[in-house]
Amino acid sequence: MNKQIILYAILGILVLVLLFFTIFPGMIDAVRDSGKSGSDLCSPEPGYTEDSWKEHMSHHPNIYSECLK
Fold first, then answer.
1. Which of 15, 24, 36, 62 is most buried, taking the most CB atoms under 10 A from its CB?
2. Where are the domains of the chain?
């Protein structure tokens, strides 16, 4: 009985995590970008053009405030 409860709890947590990242897909990028600083922060990531990177930064003004000046 206890093993079933643990299994259901783990599956429930997994479903909640997947649901969270489905609703907020940009959260992974925001967390990854939050540790950068200076020119690394403002330079485009691989796969982005200059314009699309500026648009991405405009969606996260709290992280990219020094780049948006």
1. 36
2. 2-58
- In this structure, are residues 34 and 4 in contact, taking their beta carbons and an 8 Å threshold? no
Global pTM reads 0.47
Contact in structure between 41 and 67 (CB atoms under 8 Å): yes
| Other CB atoms within 10 Å distance of the CB of residue 57 | 19
CA-closest candidate to residue 41, choices 56, 27, 51: 56
Q: For 1-41, what is each residue's pLDDT tens digit? A: 689 999 999 999 999 999 988 888 777 777 776 666 666 77
Alpha-carbon gap, residue 58 to 54, rounded angstroms: 6
Which two three-digit tokens encode residue 11? 């599956």
